[in-house]
């Protein structure tokens, strides 16, 4: 056991290991027992000769065969199980499986010694087994592909990127000592790698993105300081662009055409080329007009896809004033050009622009045009002359004017001159007046083909005129007869005029009646109200005060609260009272009204008599068949109006409608207010129309409340019973017209044959 204290046991032993006395008991009765310090036992990973005896442990406390040995810990009864075992009688420890240092680099076990009865002979002691590393793992790059960027033209030694690798072997041995190298980088060696750190840098000048934009490098890493296991990866080096190439025009001269009087249109393209990276600020072109455009009528923008310049007209051109433009333009990049970059051979170009003549719309001399008109201006009042000119001076064209928008139809426009007048009086209350302004749109059009039209806006200010006097809000009021009672009478006024012809109002008593100022006073409250008071006590009654408007004030006796007592306020004969002039006016108005009513009654009575006479006049017979009026019998006391047989006759001339403008006479049994209109009826012009004429007449008579029959039975006379003719009233009959037999009319002669054909059975 003493020989094992200073040296670890290694796997390379070819002879059986000597026993290790983990528990040693020196001679002497009173000596304290001490456990041995056992050095680690080393064993190589990946050992293939298994089972393999690692060590034999012994206890000197019992004779051989009297001790039972056991071990516990990882690799025995803990994960990973079954790697180690022990012969319980001999104490030999065996390796039963291959070890992997990368998984477990050492094991710490507990050794136990028991007697045959199971009692503990010795305290447990530690047994440490160390796994010795072998170079069984290749180095591995952390990435399969490493990327880096470097600016073109970079100086030697410029850092680009770093390649990193790892090795699972013991880092304290050469098994994990890594070295980096570049296996392949193309024809030119522009890059290097640090063998210890893996940093990749440039080694010489000559990087040009326009020549080679991307480099692919093959990297290698090896352990054992470069002599062991190896692995490879790829490094991609991107050469970033710098602005080392200036943009150039493809030509020195360009020619385009542009129509006059049109703005905001593209007229041509200016092609450029640039070798730098497309889409980058080093490639994007920026154009400048150096000369030839003093008024800023042209602009050049860049096409983001092609990098060409797009020439556009931003302000309308005028062919009459200038027919041709010669522009000098330049191009450069958005990013500044590198100082060492060569200058462009065609960094500027000339652009010739030809202006083509087209028909232009008229141009108003002033647009929008403002004018003013006083409210209430008479029709025909001049407003303004909204004239325009034709910019096409080389073309003789006539301009016409007309309205496009005039919502109130207030204006009249002279077609030839553009002179505008009012067509009718302007209504200040129009909804189209906004803050006192009225807007109309006038058009000016030339006579070309096709015609061109200009639009002009006319804004008319409607000037307020003081044409309305202020009016009292209430022309009546009540005051206490005692000035010390009540709060007086507050007067208010309104005015239809707008400012500045409205408020503030000035209230005063009529200067023509100085006696009013002795008894009354008016003081201003605000811009629209005043305070009327009595100066001295006045008698009760009605007083008329002359302001700009007549104010009737009732003076009454008031109680303690300053309110008129019941019955105290009444019109009285004394005091101011109603003036004689006012009384005469009222009486005259009443008399005129009575005379007017009397005249209307006399006129209405006269019209009624004329109408009644016209209804009773007989009409002369004509050559056609007529129903003859032989006799008419009244219907008794209840029937005051005979049956109007004229409804069934055929007069030669109808009574003119104007003869019956008055109210039609009504039967007494007619409903109240049932007075339908009586339209004129056309006479039949042929025998075939007689049936329709009679039918229409019967229907009109049935529905006319002014003549019988109306929806009631009319009793004319009682002639007894048993008449063969029966009743003639369709209202009292229980049978309809379709149940009656009219064939007997044929026996009455040729005059009734037509009726028999119409109503008889067929």
Care to describe what's here?
The protein is mainly beta and 762 residues long. Among the domains are: 41-132, Sandwich (Immunoglobulin-like), CATH 2.60.40.60; 140-240, Immunoglobulin-like, CATH 2.60.40; 248-356, Cadherins (Immunoglobulin-like, Sandwich); 363-463, Immunoglobulin-like (Sandwich), CATH 2.60.40; 471-556, Immunoglobulin-like. It contains four helices and 43 strands. It has a five-stranded mixed β-sheet with strand order 2-1-4-7-6, with no helix packed on it. A four-stranded mixed β-sheet has the order 3-9-8-5, with no helix packed on it. Strands 11-18-17-14 form a four-stranded mixed β-sheet, with no helix packed on it. Strand 35 and strand 36 (453-463) form a beta hairpin. The longest helix is centred in the last third of the chain and has 37 residues, at 580-616. The protein starts with 18 loop residues before the first strand and ends with a helix. Residues 1-15, 27-35, 569-579, 618-630, 634-644, 650-676 and 728-736 have low confidence and may be disordered.
């Amino acid at each position: 056991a003493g020989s094992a204290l200073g040296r670890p046991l290694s796997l390379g032993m070819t002879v059986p290991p000597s026993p290790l006395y983990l528990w040693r008991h020196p001679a002497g009765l009173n000596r304290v027992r001490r456990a041995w310090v056992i050095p680690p036992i080393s064993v190589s990973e990946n050992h293939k000769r298994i089972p393999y005896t690692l060590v034999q442990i012994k206890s000197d406390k019992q004779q051989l065969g009297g001790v039972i040995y056991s071990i516990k810990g990882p690799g025995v009864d803990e994960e990973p199980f079954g790697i180690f075992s022990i012969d319980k009688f001999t104490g030999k420890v065996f390796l039963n499986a291959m070890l992997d240092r990368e998984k477990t680099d050492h094991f710490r076990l507990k050794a136990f010694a028991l007697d045959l009865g199971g009692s503990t002979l010795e305290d447990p002691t530690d047994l440490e087994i160390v796994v010795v590393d072998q170079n069984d793992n290749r180095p591995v790059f952390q990435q399969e592909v490493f990327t880096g960027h470097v600016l073109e033209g970079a100086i030697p030694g410029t850092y680009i990127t770093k390649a990193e690798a790892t090795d699972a072997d013991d880092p304290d041995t050469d098994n994990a000592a890594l070295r980096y190298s570049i296996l392949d980088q193309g024809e030119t060696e522009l890059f290097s790698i640090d063998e210890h750190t893996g940093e990749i840098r440039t080694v010489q000048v000559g990087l040009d993105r326009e020549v080679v934009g991307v480099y692919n490098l093959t990297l290698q890493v090896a352990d054992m300081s470069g002599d062991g296991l190896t692995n490879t990866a790829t490094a991609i080096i991107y050469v970033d662009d710098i602005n080392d190439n200036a943009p150039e025009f493809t030509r020195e001269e360009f020619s385009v055409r542009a129509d006059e009087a049109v703005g905001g249109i593209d007229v041509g393209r200016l092609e450029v080329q640039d070798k730098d990276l497309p889409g980058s600020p080093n490639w994007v072109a920026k154009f400048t007009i150096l000369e030839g455009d003093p008024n800023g009528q042209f602009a050049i923008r860049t096409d983001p896809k092609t990098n060409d310049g797009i020439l556009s007209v931003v302000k309308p051109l005028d062919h009459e004033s200038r027919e041709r433009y010669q522009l000098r333009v330049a191009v450069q990049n958005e990013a500044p050009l590198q100082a060492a970059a060569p200058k462009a051979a065609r960094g500027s170009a000339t652009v010739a622009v030809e202006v083509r003549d087209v028909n232009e719309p008229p141009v108003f001399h002033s647009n929008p045009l403002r004018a003013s008109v006083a409210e209430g201006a008479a029709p025909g009042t001049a407003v303004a002359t909204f004239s325009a000119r034709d910019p096409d001076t080389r073309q003789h064209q006539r301009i016409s004017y007309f309205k496009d928008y005039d919502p109130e139809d207030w204006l009249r426009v002279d077609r030839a001159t553009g002179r505008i007048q009012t067509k009718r009086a302007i209504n200040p209350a129009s909804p189209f007046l906004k803050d006192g302004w009225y807007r109309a749109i006038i058009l000016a059009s030339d006579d070309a083909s096709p015609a061109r039209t200009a639009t002009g806006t006319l804004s008319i200010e409607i000037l307020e005129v003081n044409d309305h006097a202020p009016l009292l809000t209430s022309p009546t009021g009540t005051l206490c007869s005692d000035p010390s009672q009540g709060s007086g009478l507050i007067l208010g006024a309104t005015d239809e005029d707008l400012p500045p012809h409205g408020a503030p109002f000035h209230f005063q008593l009529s200067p023509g009646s100085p006696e009013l100022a002795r008894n009354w006073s008016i003081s201003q409250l605000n811009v629209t109200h005043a305070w009327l008071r009595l100066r001295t006590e006045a008698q009760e009654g009605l007083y008329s005060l002359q302001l700009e408007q007549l104010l009737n004030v009732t003076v009454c006796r008031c109680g303690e609260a300053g309110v008129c007592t019941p019955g105290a306020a009444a019109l009285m004969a004394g005091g101011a009272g109603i003036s004689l002039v006012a009384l005469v006016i009222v009486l005259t108005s009443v008399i005129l009204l009575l005379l007017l009513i009397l005249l209307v009654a006399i006129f209405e009575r006269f019209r009624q008599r004329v109408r009644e006479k016209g209804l009773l006049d007989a009409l002369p017979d004509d050559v056609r068949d007529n129903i003859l009026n032989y006799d008419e019998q009244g219907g008794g006391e209840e029937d005051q109006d005979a049956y109007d047989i004229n409804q069934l006759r055929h007069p030669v001339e109808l009574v003119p409608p104007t003869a019956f403008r008055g109210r039609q006479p009504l039967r007494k049994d007619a409903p109240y207010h049932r007075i339908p209109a009586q339209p004129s009826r056309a006479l039949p012009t042929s025998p075939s129309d007689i049936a329709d004429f009679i039918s229409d007449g019967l229907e009109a008579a049935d529905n006319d409340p002014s003549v019988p029959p109306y929806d009631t039975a009319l009793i004319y006379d009682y002639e007894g019973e048993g008449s063969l003719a029966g009743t003639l009233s369709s209202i009292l009959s229980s049978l309809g017209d379709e149940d009656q037999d009219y064939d007997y009319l044929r026996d009455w002669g040729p005059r009734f044959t037509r009726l028999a054909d119409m109503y008889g059975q067929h």
